[in-house]
Amino acid sequence: MLTSIWEIRPEQKIEHPAPFPIELPTRCIYSILDGKPGNVIDPYAGSGTTLVAAKLLGCNYLGIEIAEGYVRMARERLRNYEKEWTKVQAELENHKVRKTFKQRKKEGLSVGKFANRKKAEEGKQKRLWEGIEKR
Predict the structure, then answer these.
(1) Axis-axis angle for helices 49-56, 23-33 (nearest 10)
(2) For the domain that residue 81 is a member of, what is the CATH number?
(3) Where do the H-state alpha helices sit in 1-135?
(4) Model's pTM, two decimal places?
(5) Domain span at 113
């Protein structure tokens, strides 16, 4: 389930000084386009991570890069884009709504960062009322 805090592990196997994992552009592209095809432009294409994500999501893509080494890297990565499908597919699983906020709240499941605080306050109020009733 997605929250407002994104915990995405850094990319490890890309020879680039500022790599980011494919899950990051996948989440951004999918969230913005809502799963529909669209156009993705990456003005600093680097190793091609965003381009591969766009391709796997069925989008048109345009990458701009001035460093020839990175252009070669991005082209190679695009040729072998299928290798990254499992990561993209796993990321897309996070977008499935299994229970709505209302359902989680009704079932007493966590509904945000204040869920535990709310339970503590309810317990505190219950103890306060029990103390008043005993008097």
Answers:
(1) 50
(2) 3.40.50.150
(3) 23-33, 49-56, 68-79, 85-93, 101-106, 115-134
(4) 0.69
(5) 101-134
